[in-house]
Structure formats: C-alpha cells, structure tokens
TrEMBL record:
This is FusB/FusC family EF-G-binding protein. Pfam families: EF-G-binding_N (PF07299), FBP_C (PF16571). It comes from Lactiplantibacillus dongliensis. Residues 100-201 form the Elongation factor G-binding protein C-terminal treble-clef zinc-finger domain. It comes from the Bacteria. InterPro entries: EF-G-binding_C, EF-G-binding_N, EF-G_N_sf. The lineage of its organism: Bacteria, Bacillati, Bacillota, Bacilli, Lactobacillales. Residues 4-87 form the Elongation factor G-binding protein N-terminal domain.
Length: 217
C-alpha cells in the first residue's frame, strides 16, 4: 500500500465519520440519514485511493452499517497505512533545528500518533516553552517560543478551532544583530489535539510565515 493520504486529510475523514456517527445516533429518518451519508461520501471519497481494497472496504462499510463510535473507530483504523506520517526525527535532527537551545527537551515519540500529525509540537513545562517542527516551503523548520501558563478559551491560530489555547510568544533571533522580535499568537496548549483538529494546512502555513525566523538584510 502506497501512502497517499495526508495527515490533515486523514483528520478530515475522521471528523466526517464522527459527524456521520452523530447523525446516525440522533436521527431516525432514513431519508435524512441517506442524505447525510451521501454528502459525507462526496467529501471524503475524492481523498481516498479507491483502487486500494482497504479504501473500498471502508466506503462499503460506511454505506452498509449503522455506526457507533466503537464501530467507526474499527472502520477507520485500516486506513492508517494509507496516510503519509509525520517523520520521526532523531534527537540529532531536532538539535539541528534548534541550534540555539541548550539541552533541548526531547518530545515523547511513543505517545504520538504520527498519522495525525501535520506538525510536531511539544511543551517543556519546566521552562514554559513550546517547540514546533513543521513543513514550510518544502522543508522542516523549527520554531520555539514561550507558552503562557494561563489557558483560555479561544480560537487557535493553527487549527482554527475553539478550544483551550495559550499565548505563544515566538522568539526569533535575527542572525548577526542579536535583536529579538516576539510575536504573540494564541494556539492550542495541547499540540496532539491541535493536530487532530487540523484539517486545512493553510492557517498553519500563514502562522509559520509570521513566526519563522527571518534573517535581517
Ligand atoms: Zn490548534
């Protein structure tokens, strides 16, 4: 199986299936349910490699079964090998992305779901820092910043979902000049949840354009 589905497409498919389950649990009208199913299939089928048997089985079962949350989870699981996962980086690779950080706290890879991750984000609670590694213009870049200890309800700049966000002040040292610029954005405190909610990569790209380190000319 060749992975062709992006992580954010996978998260979108998962969300759509969640919506279908919600409808199936709350709506009894067969015609309404058929319309919901048709709309969801219209949205997700173009994202699936329909020449793959697992994708075919997935769609067939979505059509055939009345879903519960547990059944839906079992149905989605076989799609995971079709997803292009976020690369698991070595500590050396991470240190290269954060050259200025002494004793970089490493992320706990074992707790991560690489097939849900459009970017890598982890917190260093001790120093109230957040580290992000994300694809930007064809390569991975590292962003670090201070994460405010207060969590508030608000819209995340990355996943555009309302949730528990905290002010992230990215620290950008302009090379050579030693001046720092700080840019504040509210983002999800929990990057794993942020990733699961991320179904459109554009706001992440916009965020990175603002916070990425820039060389002063
Ligand atoms: Zn978020």
């Amino acid at each position: 199986m060749k992975p062709t589905i992006t992580t954010y497409q996978y998260n979108y498919i998962t969300q759509q299936v969640d919506d279908l389950v919600s409808a199936e649990l709350s709506v009894n009208d067969k015609q309404v349910l058929a319309a919901v199913l048709a709309k969801i299939l219209d949205r997700i089928t173009p994202l699936l490699p329909m020449d793959e048997p697992v994708a075919q089985t997935f769609v067939t079962q979505l059509r055939a079964e009345r879903l519960t949350r547990a059944k839906a989870a079992k149905l989605i699981a076989p799609l995971v090998p079709l997803v292009i996962p976020f690369p698991q980086l070595t500590s050396k690779q991470l240190e290269k992305l954060f050259r200025k950080v002494k004793k970089l706290k490493q992320p706990s890879w074992s707790a991560m779901h690489l097939h849900e991750m459009t970017y890598l984000g982890w917190n260093d609670g001790g120093s109230q820092k957040k580290y992000l590694v994300a694809p930007y213009q064809g390569r991975l870049i590292g962003i670090q910043g201070e994460l405010a200890p207060q969590t508030v309800k608000g819209v995340c700049a990355i996943c555009q979902t309302i949730g528990n966000v905290a002010l992230f002040l990215s620290t950008t040292k302009s090379s050579g000049l030693g001046t720092y610029t700080k840019k504040g954005n509210y983002i999800c405190r929990d990057s794993a949840q942020c990733n699961r909610q991320l179904t459109d990569p554009q706001p992440l790209a916009d965020f990175l354009t603002v916070v990425r380190p820039q060389r002063k000319k």
